[in-house]
Design goal:
- By secondary structure, the chain is of the alpha/beta class.
- It has a 5-stranded parallel sheet with strand order 8-7-6-9-10, sandwiched between helices. Strands 14-13-12-11-15 form a 5-stranded antiparallel sheet, with no helix packed on it. A 4-stranded parallel sheet has the order 2-1-4-3, covered by helices on one side.
- Helix 10 links the parallel strand 7 and strand 8.
- The chain is globular and about 80 Å long.
- The C terminus is likely disordered.
- It binds guanosine-5'-diphosphate.
- Guanosine-5'-diphosphate (GDP) binds next to helix 4, strand 7, helix 11, helix 12 and helix 13.
Length: about 475
């Protein structure tokens, strides 16, 4: 190992101890006397400095350990592998005899929701080795149909539905030429290759490369689906120039209007900006940040004024024209699709993303971001949910340290216990159900690791879980 590597490694070790010494004694003194707000404030500040310094050093390791090039190459080579497999499935040598999977666009929902539905169809197509064909004749549901072909490349040279061949109900069998795939929430029998499963043959490489392989996998499918037409590349380049998009930049997506109180709670602009500030404080440890920037995407137009008024030290990039087309009443316009694509594009290109993972649009941006970096699994802050794929079976945590419940809200853990995760409270605790004890409750997040579940490609006759 290099000198830098050893120095950093020891520094992290001793500073982790220091961190604990500080917090420990700080908390003890809290108990001893009723100390004032000012002292607590001081403690918070210095703990924050310790924390950022540690994070900087750990990130520094990845820069000096001589593996950056390997990470880059490995991510490119895995991506080429998956992209070429998808291309092969979508371009069979003889499309008259190729087996097809029909994916109907029938749900009335937003762009992120539609994209995720198609991602799900692609996962089934990939796993059952069938060519995916979209059926978007329900014009009302697939309101992007008219503009889509102008923006993205087709899924394959001939990916149209074969006529005069009967469409068999899911799951069909090896000999069924065309199988209709029901939506993820009503598929029966349910195949076990659905998220958060990742393909077994990619798993050994992906688990080394990436912090959350399922996000990488979904990102790769989106990468294939959203291959831009040349004209789209020009549109995005023009926007980049017009908006003066440049790094460092934090992508902030604020989902409001129809989502609030039905599917998500309201978070103030300040709640998002705390995390943006945190990002820049961290960044400043590695050198002066000449200008703090955010890319703001939202369906609530007034937030642009609010952000400019309350955060004058920030350069606020984004367009309130786009947010106008994002408002509930304008979402059906043709411009709206361009607006969404532009927003998703710049959010995914940002250095860090602050948003609510309850929003599909934000999850799409994060998934695409993970196809742009070798590993962008820690480049986000979600104010609510952890990452999930709608309709997924579950997400599993595995205990690596034992835990004794400290109060009625908490649950016990034994090493190797498996937990179905419900969420992260972003305060050191996650919530979930321990499969050994059947109990639901809180546990310290550092005592678990995510379990990566894998599946092999299988044919439709053996899909039943
Ligand atoms: P979700 O409802 O937030 O889970 O995500 P969806 O993508 O399924 O639906 C949200 C819809 O709201 C999108 O299709 C857009 O029309 C609109 N929208 C929400 N936030 C934004 C935004 O930041 N930018 C743009 N351009 N549109 C947005």
């Amino acid at each position: 190992p290099s000198k830098e590597y050893e120095v950093l490694r020891r520094r992290i070790y001793s500073n982790t101890k220091e961190f604990w010494y500080y917090v420990n004694s700080g908390l003890k003194s809290l108990n001893k006397s009723m100390i004032g707000v000012e002292r607590i404030h001081k403690i918070k500040n210095i703990v924050g400095e310790h924390f950022r310094s540690l994070l900087k050093d750990v990130s520094g390791l990845a820069e000096v350990d001589n593996y950056s090039k390997w990470r880059q190459q490995e991510s490119e080579s895995l991506s080429i592998l998956v992209q070429s497999r998808l291309e092969e499935i979508q371009n069979p040598p003889n499309w008259f005899t190729a087996r097809q999977l029909v994916c109907k666009i029938e749900k009335f929902c937003g762009f992120g929701c539609q994209l995720h539905h198609i991602v799900y169809c692609f996962i089934v197509a990939y796993s059952t080795q069938r060519m995916l064909v979209l059926d978007y004749h329900n014009i009302e549901a697939w309101r992007y149909g008219e503009v889509w072909p102008n923006i993205f490349l087709p899924f394959g040279d001939t990916s149209t539905l074969l006529k005069n061949i009967s469409v068999v109900k899911w799951p069909g069998n090896q000999n069924s030429q065309i199988v209709y795939l029901p939506p993820i929430d009503s598929i029966h029998p349910r195949p076990y290759f659905l998220p958060q499963m990742i393909p077994a043959d990619l798993a050994p490489r992906l688990t080394v490369l990436h912090g959350d392989p399922i996000v990488w996998w979904i990102g790769q499918i989106l990468k294939y689906m959203l291959r831009p037409q040349l004209s789209t590349i020009h549109i995005l380049d023009d926007y980049a120039n017009k908006l003066k998009f440049q790094k460092p930049i934090v992508g902030v997506h604020i989902r409001r209007t129809d989502k609030i109180n039905s599917e998500a709670s309201l978070h103030t602009l300040d709640e998002y900006m705390v995390h943006v500030e945190e990002y820049y404080k961290q960044k400043e440890l590695s050198g002066n940040v000449s200008r703090k920037r955010i890319y703001l995407a939202t369906d609530e137009q007034t937030l642009f004024d609010e952000a400019k008024r309350n955060y004058p030290e920030y350069e606020i990039i984004g367009s309130d024209d786009i947010s106008r087309t994002a408002s509930v009443k304008n979402r059906k316009s043709k411009e709206a699709l361009i607006g969404i694509i532009v927003d998703i594009h710049f959010l995914s290109l940002s250095d860090h993303l602050v948003c609510t993972f309850s929003s599909q649009l934000c999850r799409v941006a994060y998934e695409i971001m993970n196809s742009l970096y070798p590993d962008a699994s820690s480049r986000f802050t979600s104010l609510d949910d952890i990452y999930y794929f709608g309709g997924q079976a579950h997400r599993i945590n595995e205990a690596v340290l034992p835990h004794k419940a400290n109060g009625p809200d908490e649950i016990d853990l034994q090493v190797e216990d498996q937990i179905f995760v419900a969420g992260n409270h972003w305060n050191g605790y996650s919530k979930g159900r321990n499969l050994r004890t059947g109990l639901l409750g809180l546990y310290p997040t550092f005592k678990v690791i995510p379990k990566i579940e894998t599946t092999t490609i299988i044919d439709t006759e053996t899909i039943i879980s």
